[in-house]
């Protein structure tokens, strides 16, 4: 397969995923999820800049703001398939009040870049902008990056690992419990 | 607008006005009467272990630098330069020798003293730097590593202020021979609601659990049944509160040990489960027979600190005006647990609580919706009803304080009785 074809395949996969999520077809979305998934959203804080790293890119790297994945900090989310299943399950219950009425989401996935491909497994980063509105509340805007490990499956992929880096300064949205 | 407190909260606090939750003048009075007078939670010693370590904190809307000084002392200073008032610390946490103010580069040590004024060389009359440090929080005291500050120099000692709340907090903290540790930075998120509602929720609102959270915790779940049979709400001192299940003496270890009832415990490795069992095995020796049978729900320490037992979090509801809070929530683990188990235990908190929490997103939703109801007009003559279980409060030989069943709202009435007293004292001055 050419690099162009591969890029097209990955993009189509993400567009389909986005459509399922925006259409609230979360049960169908679960089929894109590998049973061994690690799905996480690191905490993001504003640590003191290290004086000794002055003049180097590391001084202000995004990585040093993230905490709680393997490091000794607190993630916002760190979930496996069972937890994602719970989230999907509750979306279809009348008494999941945070989703009743359900939110209207519209997401744009872009900057899809394949960083690595060993034949079975791909490392892909992508960006998202998401518009979120629930009747009775204000409208909200979410932006972030997804760092995925995709596993090839027939002619498509499954998501084996997803790390979501959110960009807001203050978390001022109704929930970060969305499927992103 | 003059505030008539007796119209806002009736005498037994079974009726509460919507204005209590939404009025700007009430909020300004709360700042002086409560946040200027009481002990406020700042953080935990495990967040600032070494000299030069600091974290940011708040006392109401006032930004505080909480730091460990050169000699190991704890310092709390207001994060505002004495020259033109800018915040001098611009990070959430870190380790440093100096904070440098951006504007004219006055520098301060972590304990708040002013070290250099760069412009000093160019003037003749040198200012007295000893007088120009950051304003200190006048009273700072700790209990079990929990650090509190107060703007009220005359306030009673922290231990007296906590009173019998120590008995209930200790029921958890003292189970762990090495005490507790706060992991990483807190979750911090902004919710369009009044600061008192998250507080009230944790103070003793046991019975919202199987209703608001029914999509996750059904009423006929084990937790729901235990709450029906064994739940107590205790008010050790008005404004504080502890809710918990006091399990029967023959309860098997796995039904009582801390950490077992969450998915992390349920689905955890054998190693994790054995660790949790080992904590329960020594609980009686650590905290005595009654407290070893306690299986907590949630607590509150007046005015705005909360503690969540099974998902192990400390939370602070920082006001940002009458209709907004910045909620801070830390994951807490036993300090002497193995590091890799701490990483599993922290997920009791992440994913279930915090801004993305499976459970807490329902709470945020309820609090945002309450704020909508608290801001409506033409309903001042229909006060909010806080009367469930009025007059049914009692005592219990083993439990210090006023004791009620889980469904009784005395915990909230007691909070608002104290709230009204505090505000009245400020108005009568
Ligand atoms: S305002 Fe801080 S140095 Fe001038
Ligand atoms: Fe809740």
Largest sheet of chain B: 9 strands, antiparallel
| Strand-pairing-aware structural class of chain B | alpha+beta
In the predicted model, the low-confidence regions of chain B spanning at least 5 consecutive residues are none
Report the CATH topology name of chain A.
Nuclear Transport Factor 2, Chain: A
Helix content of chain B: 25-40%
Q: Which distinct ligands sit in these coordinates?
A: FE2/S2 (inorganic) cluster, fe (ii) ion
Instruction: Give the second-level CATH assignment, the architecture of the largest domain in chain B.
Output: Alpha-Beta Complex
Secondary-structure element pattern of chain A, one letter each: HHEEEEHEEEE
What is the global morphology of chain B?
A: globular
**How many domain regions of chain B?**
2
Backbone structural class of chain A: alpha+beta
Major β-sheet annotation of chain A: 6 strands, mixed
Specify the oligomeric state. heterodimer
CATH top level label of chain A: Alpha Beta
Q: Going across the major beta sheet of chain A, what is the strand order? A: 4-1-8-7-6-5
Helix segment count of chain A? Answer: 3
């Amino acid at each position: 397969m050419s690099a162009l074809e591969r890029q097209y395949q990955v993009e189509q996969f993400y567009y389909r995923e986005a459509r399922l999520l925006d259409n609230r077809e979360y049960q169908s979305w679960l089929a894109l999820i590998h049973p061994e998934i690690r799905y996480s959203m690191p905490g993001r804080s504003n640590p003191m800049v290290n004086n000794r790293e002055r003049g180097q890119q590391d001084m202000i790297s995004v990585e040093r703001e993230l905490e709680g994945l393997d490091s000794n900090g607190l993630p916002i989310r760190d979930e496996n398939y069972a937890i994602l299943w719970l989230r999907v399950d509750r979306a279809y219950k009348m008494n999941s009040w945070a989703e009743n009425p359900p939110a209207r989401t519209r997401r744009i996935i872009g900057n899809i870049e394949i960083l690595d491909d060993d034949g079975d497994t791909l490392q892909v980063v992508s960006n998202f902008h998401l518009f979120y509105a629930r009747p009775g509340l204000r409208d909200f805007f979410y932006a972030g990056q997804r760092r995925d490990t995709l596993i090839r499956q027939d002619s498509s992929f499954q998501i084996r690992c997803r790390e979501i880096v959110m960009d807001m300064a203050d978390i001022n949205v109704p929930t970060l419990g969305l499927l992103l | 607008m003059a505030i008539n407190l007796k119209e806002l909260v009736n005498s037994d606090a079974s009726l509460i006005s919507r204005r209590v939750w939404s009025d700007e003048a009430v909020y300004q009075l709360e700042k002086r009467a409560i946040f200027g007078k009481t002990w406020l939670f700042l953080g935990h010693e495990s967040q600032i272990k070494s000299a030069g370590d600091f974290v940011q904190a708040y006392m109401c809307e006032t930004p505080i630098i909480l730091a460990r000084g050169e000699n190991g002392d704890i310092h709390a200073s207001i994060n505002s330069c004495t020259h033109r008032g800018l915040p001098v610390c611009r990070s959430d946490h870190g380790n440093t020798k100096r904070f440098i103010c951006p504007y004219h580069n006055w520098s301060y040590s972590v304990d708040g003293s002013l070290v250099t004024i760069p412009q000093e060389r160019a003037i003749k009359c040198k200012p007295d730097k000893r007088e120009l440090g950051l304003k200190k929080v006048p009273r700072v005291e700790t209990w079990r590593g929990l650090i509190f500050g107060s703007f009220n120099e005359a306030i009673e000692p922290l231990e007296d202020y906590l009173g019998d709340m120590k008995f209930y907090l200790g029921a958890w903290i003292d189970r762990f021979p090495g005490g507790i540790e706060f992991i990483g930075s807190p979750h911090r998120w902004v919710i369009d609601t009044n600061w008192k509602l998250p507080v009230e929720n944790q103070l003793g609102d046991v019975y919202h659990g199987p209703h608001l959270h029914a999509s996750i915790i059904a009423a006929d779940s084990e937790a729901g049944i235990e709450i029906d049979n064994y739940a107590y709400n205790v008010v050790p001192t008005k404004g504080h509160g502890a809710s918990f299940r006091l399990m029967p003496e023959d309860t098997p270890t796995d039904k009582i040990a801390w950490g077992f009832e969450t998915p992390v415990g349920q689905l955890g490795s054998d190693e994790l489960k054995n660790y949790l069992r080992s904590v329960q095995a020594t609980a009686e020796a650590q905290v005595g027979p009654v407290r070893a049978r306690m299986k907590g729900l949630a607590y509150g320490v007046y005015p705005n600190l909360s503690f969540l037992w099974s998902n192990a979090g400390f939370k602070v509801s920082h006001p940002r005006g009458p209709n907004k809070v910045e909620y801070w929530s830390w994951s807490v683990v036993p300090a002497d647990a193995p590091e890799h188990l701490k990483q599993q235990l922290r997920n009791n908190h992440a994913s279930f609580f915090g801004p993305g929490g499976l459970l807490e997103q329902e709470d945020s939703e309820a609090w945002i919706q309450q704020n909508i109801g608290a801001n409506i007009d033409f309903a001042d003559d229909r006060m909010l009803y806080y009367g469930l279980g009025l007059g049914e409060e009692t005592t219990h030989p083993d439990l210090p304080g006023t004791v009620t069943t889980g469904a009784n709202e005395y915990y909230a009435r007691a909070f608002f009785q104290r709230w009204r007293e505090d505000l009245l004292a400020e108005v009568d001055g």
